[in-house]
Structure formats: structure tokens, C-alpha cells
Fold Cold-active alkaline phosphatase.
Amino acid sequence: MIIMVGDGMGPAYTSAYRYFQDNPDTEEIEQTVFDRLLVGMASTYPARESGYVTDSAASATALATGFKSYNGAIAVDINKRPLTTIMQMAKARGMSTGVAVTAQVNHATPAAFLTHNESRKNYEAIAADMLKSDADVILGGGRKYFSEALVSQFSAKGYQHITELAQLDSITQPKVLGLFAEVQLPWVIDDTDANTLSKLTQKSLDLLSQNEKGFVLLVEGSLIDWAGHNNDIATAMAEMQGFANAIEVVEQYIRQHPDTLLVVTADHNTGGLSIGANGEYQWDTKLPKGISASPASIATHAIAADDWQAGVNQQLGFDVNSTELQQLTNARMQGKSTLEVALKKIIDTRSYTGWTTSGHTGVDVQVFAMGPAADLFKGNQDNTHIAEKMMSLLPKVN
């Protein structure tokens, strides 16, 4: 079983990605992997104490355990008691388990599948508890949270510890702890290799499938959410591309291993993205397609360079006009973060992209599935039902 989570990937993201990927030279609007695999929708609200808008921890707890909890909970109930996760159930059946993510491996979603904690913010404690999970594959970022002493404990337990993506090729057997960045992996839009999550996914499948009893794998496109929090459409679409590529890796795996189930969903919606804004009935995909670096990276280079205007135009893929140039000049004098915000406002205005919040919203999210029992996930359901259905498909305990 493979569960893939597009963190923050509300329905507007998959629609935007369809248009972002569209070939304007053809009459039809081409389908994406999300269009091919769509089967249903899911509600995401947390335990009633937390209202209607979930955070990643409560939603991941629901997807991992089948129970609602409070925002911030890592696989514990509202009384902070541990809840049994699908990964624990898989381990009890002799199956292998793994996580491959683009955030730190001890971030809310992977943490809720592998550990238990009363607060998602207890990063060091969660990292230490990952040792107890006995997961066969742990791949992502988060080096800063794993002390030398902790890494030594992982090594003593048989884990191969790697810190460079190039080292993945040398790993041919579980177990592996791969920590490829201090915190998050690079943004896809800034990365020379836009298929990092695909590589992590493929390696996870190669390693976990060695167990004849089967496996449960979590793959998260974590940074879709982070781009949404930043209200950054160009970076978000690049993250969607990276996640879509990873889903296609799993699609190919299932064609070769038809006894494998894939379920893809989002934990919640982030940013309140709208395709079209300011009263205009249009959305310009050509503009975000032409941006070659994240606004954060563009701002960093612009602050450091003397002849910064030419560099900004080149990385944006268009020449800013005199009014926009004045806005950027004023913002640059106030520092990187102010300049980054100014760049995103220009991108949004020109592309007719809208946002309602820098946080989460409470809209339902989509559910996608492929493989045996994919029909179970059709229609409307709660996120806890996704966990319950996947758990029901696990082998019986001997």
C-alpha cells in the first residue's frame, strides 16, 4: 500500500496544475495524473475542540490512525494518549514501512505515521522516537534535528545513514536513514534536479518491495503547502509538478505489481488559492511557466547584485514596467522579505492569481486511487475513513 499526501493541495491546486501543464498549441486541455486517478472527496476537519480548519498534524493523525484529534496532535487522541497507526499495524504483520518526504522527516505528516507526541513542535523528541518506529526507509530533510548521538543509535540498529542524494544508488537493502538537507529539500523551481521526490519514491519502492509480506509507504509532497503559505504560485506549481512526477512513478510500479494499492489525497487546503482574481475572467499560465526561480531566490540575488534589475527581469521571464520597477526598488531598500512579497504581488496581479489567506482553509480535498480496492475510495468520505479502509485491507494477523 502506498499513501501519497500532497500537503496543502486543495482542489484549486490540481485544477491550476492542469492549466499550468496545458499545451496552448492544441485545441484540447490535456489531462493530468490527477484527472486520471480522481475517485472522490474527503472532509478534513479536526476534533471538534479545534473547530473546522485542520492543521497538518491533526489531519495526518486522522489519515494514519482513523481518529480525529486536536490541531498539533501527533498520533495521539484528544487526551494525548497514543493511537495505533497503520504503520504499527503493518509492522505487527511483518510488513515493511517507510516514508519519503520533501520537508524534514520529523515534520507533522511523517511524524504522525511513525511516532506519537502531544505536539508537532517537539521536533527533537519526534526524531528520537523515529528510532522506535523501526521503519525500513526514512528519506527527506531534517539533518538539524538528528544529533550525532542519535544518528549513531540509528547506525547501531542497522540503519545506513546517507546525506547526499547521489548516495541513494549505493543503497540496495533496507534499512536507510537519508537526511538530505538541514530542514526542507530545495524548492523544485530552484533545484537543478526537479525529480528528487520521484527518486526518493522509486528507491523506497525498490527497497520495501523486497519484503514478500508487503509494505506500507507514505510519500509526501510537503512543500506544496509551504508554497501555499507563502502565497507563491510559481513555486507551488513547480512543487505540484514534482509531486505529479512521483505519482507517475507509482503508477508505473502498480502496472508491474498489480497487487499494490495507491491512495493519493491532501491533508487540507492551504492559502485559499483562486484561479482568476480581481474581477477578471482569466488566468495567465504563461507567466508562472516563464519564471525560472522562486521569488525568495530572486529576491536574494537582487539584494546582493548591483545591476539587479536585469537579473530580476531574466528570472521572472518578463520585463517589469516602470510602476512595478519603482515598487521593487522601494521594497529592495527594506530587505529581502519585503522584496519577495513585492515580487509575488506583481506575479499575482499579472497572472490573475488570488489568495484568501496565508494559512489553511476548511474545504474538502480530493481523493485519487489506483489498484485493487481503489473503488472503496469513491465518493464522499471523511479523512478518517481513508485510514479505516486502508487498515481493513491489511493482511490478517496470524
Q: What stands out?
A: The chain has two domains: 2-274+357-393, 284-351.
